[in-house]
Amino acid sequence: QSHLVESGGGLVQPGGSVRLSCTASGFSLAKYTVGWFRQVPGKEREGVSCITPSGGITEYGESVEDRFSISRDNSKNTVYLQMNMLKPEDTNIYFCAAAITTAQALCRIPDFDVDYRGQGTLVTVSS
């Protein structure tokens, strides 16, 4: 069975860091653009960051572009999201999704139809 699994969430203090992982099982992630998303009231989802199959092109949401960094290791079938300088408003469930498209399309089109989507991992930023 093919699916995506996120890990790495938890409780972190404001200003702290955490790294999320998105690992594919049952298929190769290497040909997919992968994105990290979070839920926003009134929206399908908010694109946090996206990365193309080779890792050569990345896309970031305005609220995170100076604090978060996306990367991937296709040999491990995994995409990472390094989250630094975390703020309480970053508290959310973060999930990953994969599609064969551009990073810009995956991140910026709220209801873009993805091929795979994980269940999510909770990040709580609180003192």
Largest sheet: 7 strands, mixed
Report strand %: over 45%
Count of helical regions: 1
The counted number of beta strands is 11
* Helical residues, percent: under 10%
Return Rg in Å.
13 Å
Instruction: Name the shape in a single word.
Output: globular
Mean pLDDT reading: 95
Q: How far apart lie the N and C ends?
A: 39 Å
Order of helices and strands, N to C? Answer: EEEEEEEEEHEE
Structural class: mainly beta
Provide the low-confidence segments as ranges. none
Overall description:
This protein is mainly beta. The strands form two sheets. Strands 2, 4, 5, 6, 9, 10 and 11 form a seven-stranded mixed beta sheet that branches. A hairpin with a 6-residue loop joins strand 5 and strand 6. It starts with a strand and ends with a strand.
Considering the chains and any ligands shown, give keywords for the structure.
mainly beta, four-stranded antiparallel sheet
Please give the structural blueprint:
Elements: E1 3-7, E2 10-12, E3 18-25, E4 33-38, E5 46-51, E6 58-60, E7 68-73, E8 78-83, E9 92-99, H1 103-108, E10 116-117, E11 121-125
Parallel strand pairs: 2-11
Antiparallel strand pairs: 1-3, 3-8, 4-5, 4-9, 5-6, 7-8, 9-10, 9-11
Brief sketch in words of this structure:
With 127 residues, this protein is mostly beta strands. Helices cover 5% and strands 46% of the residues.
